[in-house]
Amino acid sequence: FAQTSAHFRLRSSLERSTTEFEGNNSQSSSWVRKFLRKMKAWVMFMALGFIIVEAREQVITLGVHFVCDTRFVEARTEKHHATPLRDYLEIFLYDVELYLQKSQCPKIKLFLTNVTKTTKEEELIFEKTETEGTKTILDPTFTLGMFEEWVQTKDDLKNDSIVFLLTSLMIDDPVGNGISKKGYSYFNGACTLGVGLAYDSGAWFDGVIHVAQQIVHMLGAPWDTTNDCKENSRTLMAAPGTPHNLSNCTEEALRKTYNENVKKDVCWKRISNLASDSKRSLPAKYFETESYCATRRSNVDQCAAGHPYNEPARCLIGCCFGNTTDASGLRYKMPDGTLCGDNKICIALVCSSVPKEDGD
To answer: Which keywords belong to this entry (predicted)?
Structure first.
């Protein structure tokens, strides 16, 4: 607020000048006194305006480029979804932004810059995998480092704020502390080593929480594993992680990252507003044209109205093997964005009020 201080110094100087003028030149023309008073009012207005503008600019806007490996693309194909991949990922990223809505100072805005599908040949360069029985497991430590090197060789990737590798491979980290079992990134790496990876089924947005955690991690927020911010506190950066609360540690870290870069030319200041080109909707909208129950399990449909497994107030949906109210079935969480009450939607199994600007 150096400019603000300058405004107030100028205001004080004008006040002194006005007082001296009025005391020593009491017979002078009145228009000069009026002019100086108007100047004081103008300086006060400009100073207040600067403060308001500064407050409005407390936003981190990140452009995200998703790189989808062949396992991720194949998983979508197996579900027979007709919705284009880019549409899925635009909804996915807006859901991630919704999971970060508790951060108000700064706010975090996310926009999809592009989508890239990799080939098996490219994946041999950066994906480190091991086979255990019939399962193929991804090593995130080695993969992230090699993925970052690969990104730097691609002109269409290296200028994005964040590049995320999405995979449907199982992730197992033999080195890390196990807090984030399905996501990985460099701490405080946004704008520098701006790469991350995360698991997602490619069909029902189950990777949203992992990407949300990694973005905050890349913005300098530690995992909640300390006495001040405990792991069992049901916060975003705890295990398993929930978007409904941010710990003090997370809030302080995000403020610190923002404040330390206010006057720097960091990557989030170079992202143009892409909102007009993005689909700002949530998974519930996606499943208006895709079968949610069939996506979760084959041979089931949404349970009939009145079935006890349907509990919208608890954000639970029943998927049954028949269409009667006593049919056997399974219970799943409702897709984010499903209406669950007056002006409320489901977010990660909680019926939640959402600020109007974040509404679907």
So the answer is: Hydrolase, Metalloprotease, Protease, Zinc
- CATH assignment of 59-280? 3.40.390.10
Distance from C-alpha of 62 to C-alpha of 66, rounded to nearest angstrom: 13
Q: What is the pLDDT of residues 97-146, one digit of tens each?
A: 999 999 998 999 999 999 999 999 999 999 999 998 889 999 999 999 99
Phi, psi (deg, nearest 5) at residue 155? -65, -30
C-alpha span between 196 and 53 (Å, rounded): 33
Tell me the C-alpha distance between 264 and 212, whole Å: 24
Radius of gyration of the chain (CA): 26
> Across the beta sheet with 344-347, what order do the strands follow?
339-341, 344-347, 350-353
Say if residue 186 is exposed, middle or buried (CB neighbours under 10 Å; 0-12, 13-18, 19+).
middle
292 or 17: which carries more pLDDT confidence?
292
> How sure is the predictor about 10, in pLDDT bands with cuts at 50, 70 and 90?
very low
Domain boundaries, the chain: 2-56, 59-280, 292-358
Strand (E) or helix (H) holding 282? none
